[in-house]
Amino acid sequence: MSSPFAHVQQLPRDPVLGITEAFVADSSPRKVNLGVGVYLDENGHVPLLDCVQQAEEELLRRKGPHSYVPIDGIAAFDNAVASLIFSGERPSLDERLVTVQALGGTGALKLGADFLRTTNPSARIWISDPSWENHRALFSAAGFEVETYPYYRADGGLDFAGLIQTLSSLPSGDILLLHACCHNPTGLDLEPYQWAEIQALAAERGVIPFLDAAYLGFADGLDADRVAIDTFAQAGLPFLVSFSFSKSLSLYGERVGALAVVTGGAAERGPVLSQIKRIARTTYSSPPSHGGATVATILNEPGLTALWHDELALMRDRIKAMREGLAERLRVQVPDRDFSFITRQRGMFSYSGLSKEAVEMLRSRFSIYALDSGRICVAALNKANLDIVAEAIATVLRESGEQSLVA
Ligand code: LMR
C-alpha cells in the first residue's frame, strides 16, 4: 500500500528558527548566533530575570494546583496587561477593550489574524517591506492575501512617502500591520508626527491598524515606546495590539503574550471576546498557566514591577553599548565606510545590509550566524565575541568586495 504522505513536499527551513537549528548543529567552539531575536547577557546566556525568579518562588510558596486556565487567560494577567499596554489611555478605552492571554507574540498575532479573517474575509493585510519573516507566513496561513508597503530605502533610510502613498490607496477594511517600536528587522522606527499622520489616514480610509508590540521597552523604555499605541488609542477608533513577554521578561519558552482589541464600542465587547475565545478554544483550548501566573505576579506586585523596569533598562542599555562597540570596531577595521547606522537603529536588531552571500560566508568561514536578510541580533553580542564578530564582518566585506553595507 502506498503511503498517504508519499506526495508531501519538503519545505525550506524556517528563516529565523532554522538558523538556530543550523547553529546548534555547528561544533565550532567559536560559533556565535546572531540569528534569532533573543537577548543574551554579558556571559552569553539567556538571563533569568530576578523579578521572574522572585515571582516563581512566590508561586511555589503558594503551591497552587495545575488547574485549567480560562479560555481567555488568567483574569489578573489580562487586567494587568491591559494597563501595561494602554497605561494612561486605558480608562477611556476600558468599556470596549478586549484583552486575552495568548501564546507569545506569535500566538497573539495568530488569534488576531484568525479573528480578522472572520470579520473581514475579503480584506488584504499590508506588512512593511521588509518585515519579520513570520508575519507573511502567519497571515498567509490564516487565509489572507499579504501585500507589502514601502518602508526601508536602499540608502538605509525610511520610505515614509512610499508608506503614505500606499496607505492612501487602500480600501476600507484592509488591515495595516505596523511595528509599534524597534522595527523588526530594520530597527528604523517612525517619529511621533509620522504615527499621527498614519493614524489620521488609516481612519480616513477605514483601514484597520494592527500594532505588533513585541519589543516594547527595548527602544527608549516602556513609556516612550508607547507612542504608537497612544496615538491610536487617543483617536478612539478600533485597532489591535499584539504583545509579547518573550523578550522583555526573558520568558521565551513560556509562550506568554497577549492580544488586545479596541472595539468600536461597549456593545461590541462581548461579541468580539466570544469570537476570540472560540478561536482559542478550537486551537489550543486555553493558555498555559505558568508564564501567565508569573507575569501576573510581577505586574500586580509594585516591588516586582519596579525591579522588572530596572532589569529591562539594563538589557536596553547593554544592547546600546554593544551597538556602539560594533560600530566603533567596524569603523577601525573598515575606515572608508560609515557604520553610524548601527547606533541609529533601535531594538535588538541591526539591519546590516550584508548580502546573502556575505551572510553565507560569515556562517561557513566563521561560524557566525545571521539571517539571510542580513539582520543581525546585536543583543547577542558581548565583550567576548565583539572583536571576533567585527573582524569577521570586516573580512567578509573586504573579501566579498561589497560596495555598500546599507543597501
Ligand atoms: C525573531 O524575529 O528572531 C524573533 O521574533 C523570534 C522568532 O520567533 O522569529
From TrEMBL:
The keyword Transferase applies. GO terms for biological process: L-phenylalanine biosynthetic process from chorismate via phenylpyruvate. CDD domains: AAT_like (cd00609). The keyword Zinc-finger does not apply. One of its GO terms (cellular component) is cytosol. Keywords: Aminotransferase, Pyridoxal phosphate, Transferase. Residues 30-393 form the Aminotransferase class I/classII large domain. This is Aminotransferase. It comes from Beijerinckia indica subsp. indica (strain ATCC 9039 / DSM 1715 / NCIMB 8712). The lineage of its organism: Bacteria, Pseudomonadati, Pseudomonadota, Alphaproteobacteria, Hyphomicrobiales.
